[in-house]
Amino acid sequence: MNKTVLFFLIPIFFSQNITSQNRKIIDVHFHTRSAGDYGKIPPPNPITGKAPKAETNDMILNSNIALLKEYNVVKAICSGTLKRNADFISKDPSRFISSLEYPDHQNNSLPDTLAFKKLCEEHKISAFGELGLQYEGEVLSDKKYEPYLSICEKFGIPVAVHTGIAAPNTPYTCCPNFKIEAGKPLLLEPVLLKHPKLKVQLMHMGYPFLEETKALMVIFPQVYVDVSAVDWLVPKEEFYSYLKALITAGFEDRIMYGSDQMIWEDGISLSIKTVEEAPFLNDAQKDKIFYKNASKFFNIQ
Ligand SMILES: [Zn+2]
């Protein structure tokens, strides 16, 4: 599937001055992209208008690592193919944690369940996602994913699911099977009922389905959210309003920072700056969102 996952294309502009608090950060939604994943000439960043500078696989690798170091992102959960994740891990082993993305940009099929179990047993993957099933109009409760979820539950492997929406025109461009309905957080309820020990990461914080996200988080304490993409691709006040609602509802211990930088390196700095500048978050809450919550969810020491 040659999908171009441009999450939201809303032309708003952020200031370029970055607030550096030197806070320790874990990025739970980082993509290990390859050259060509978004076409021969990748589109510019929809927010800044900047074209991605890195043109080769090595350039992508090096520019991402340089940015993560600059912003003190000490760990990144890599969502990508096993092969591309291995490139990142071999270059900077202590920074990257491998997570199996599905579907991916190379149209790889899922490994069979025996191979998948081996990947978990041998710690070749520490998370399962991003699962962009919504782009195929599919849901995680489909029975074909059931054996994979049982394995994840058994080995304590978190499952990271794309929820919410996507870029304007998604069904008319990359993904004719895309369904808004398939991104609703409550569709995860049957999975959580069947797998009470399964850790689930609601990618993009279920945005814009706030009520469903809150309901799921109240009933199922094993559900965490990441703020990725929403933290730099939607209007800032809209993001703040949604994030504040989750904080007010009492979930500050289960919200995790993510960039979802895709091919735009500057997505990392934009997203960090937006969370850092949230006027309603105190310092302790920022420490939780940027590091502590993810450290607990992914067992990072
Ligand atoms: Zn996503």
TrEMBL record:
The reply to whether Thylakoid figures as a keyword in the UniProt entry is no
The entry's protein name is: Amidohydrolase family protein
What species is given as this protein's source? Answer: Flavobacterium resistens
Q: Which domain of life does the protein's organism represent?
A: Bacteria
Asked whether the UniProt record includes Metal-binding among its keywords, one would answer: no
Q: Which UniProt keywords apply?
A: Lyase
User: Where is each Amidohydrolase-related domain found?
Assistant: 26-299
GO terms of molecular function: carboxy-lyase activity; hydrolase activity
